[in-house]
Model the fold of this input.
Amino acid sequence: DQQVKQNSPSLSVQEGRISILNCDYTNSMFDYFLWYKKYPAEGPTFLISISSIKDKNEDGRFTVFLNKSAKHLSLHIVPSQPGDSAVYFCAAVNDYKLSFGAGTTVTVRA
Amino acid sequence: GAGVSQSPRYKVAKRGQDVALRCDPISGHVSLFWYQQALGQGPEFLTYFQNEAQLDKSGLPSDRFFAERPEGSVSTLKIQRTQQEDSAVYLCASSRLGGVSYNEQFFGPGTRLTVL
Done:
């Protein structure tokens, strides 16, 4: 059963605008949430995380929001840049184990 | 410093063949993980090592899958009698610490296995 879901397989955004990626989860035992970025033929690289006790974490152009009551998190990228074109995975942590969503492919148009 | 490396990067096997996939974690990293990523899906956990001890193999899909890390560094994922449904990218990740709490996992580039 999929405990982490990313329901939008793709997102196209103009350079300079905001990208919003969404993620839903079902297991209330998750204690950390992560976003990974993946380029073709490379492994996922860590982007940003949020603890389950927080509702927002910001790092430069990247902000993650967590709504525990809705079991929903989102990643905001502002402003979007061409180098942000990649697949973004949402992941949730239970102890050492990561559960990933299926990913959202982001394309930033010039 | 060097990241996680995996070899081979690509492997084509005929159905029924055995394959071995290698992972070289970041030097000194205690924890090592294997994930399977099917086409269009996110990575799925297979197994976890703390040093040479395999602490969790709950994600291995069948007894055809076997992983080892005999000296607590390099790990090998072996798949016996490969089937078409084994076609996927196999990702290895390592993290600096052990234990049951999360610490950042660093991923290798993966091995793409195609079973014909």
About this structure: The CA atoms of residues 32 and 96 of chain A lie 10 Å apart.
